[in-house]
Specification:
By secondary structure, the protein is of the alpha+beta class. The chain is built from 3 helices and 5 strands. The protein has 2 domains: 77 residues, 2-Layer Sandwich (S16 Ribosomal Protein, Chain: A), CATH 3.30.1320.10; 33 residues. Belongs to the bacterial ribosomal protein bS16 family.
Length: 124
């Protein structure tokens, strides 16, 4: 049985509240879970206490082999209970394929216009 430390949604519509739970990886998001380890209230301001965790129980489940999801791993890293490697995607900020094609065409037109202007200036 593979265990996950993940979020289970609670709260009403447009007012999310999440429980940090340990669950079997095959069970549904808001379905059966083994134990509640904490909570996350994203509606609170960022400087408030948004995340609460039971550190000793989290350490126990990590020791047993439970794998945290990415969002929960961020919480655990901030609390000092686990380490999360920083992800790097240098190509994320690049424009899409069509935008790159348009930029290349624009550069080509500018180079052609500059060459034509230089040719006209040398002819005079």
């Amino acid at each position: 049985m593979s265990l996950k430390i993940r979020l289970a949604r609670a709260g009403s519509k447009k007012r999310p509240y999440y429980h940090v739970v340990v669950a079997d990886a095959r069970s549904p998001r808001d379905g059966r879970f083994i134990e509640t380890l904490g909570s996350w209230n994203p509606m609170l301001p960022k400087d408030a206490e948004r995340v609460t965790l039971k550190a000793d129980r989290v350490q126990h489940w990590l020791g047993v082999g439970a794998q945290p999801t990415d969002r929960v791993l961020r919480f655990l890293d901030k609390a000092g209970l686990a380490t999360r490697e920083a992800k790097s995607n240098p190509s994320k900020g690049e424009p899409g394929k069509k935008a790159q094609e348009r930029a290349a065409e624009r550069r080509q037109r500018e180079e052609d216009a500059a060459a034509k202007a230089a040719e006209a200036a040398s002819a005079e």
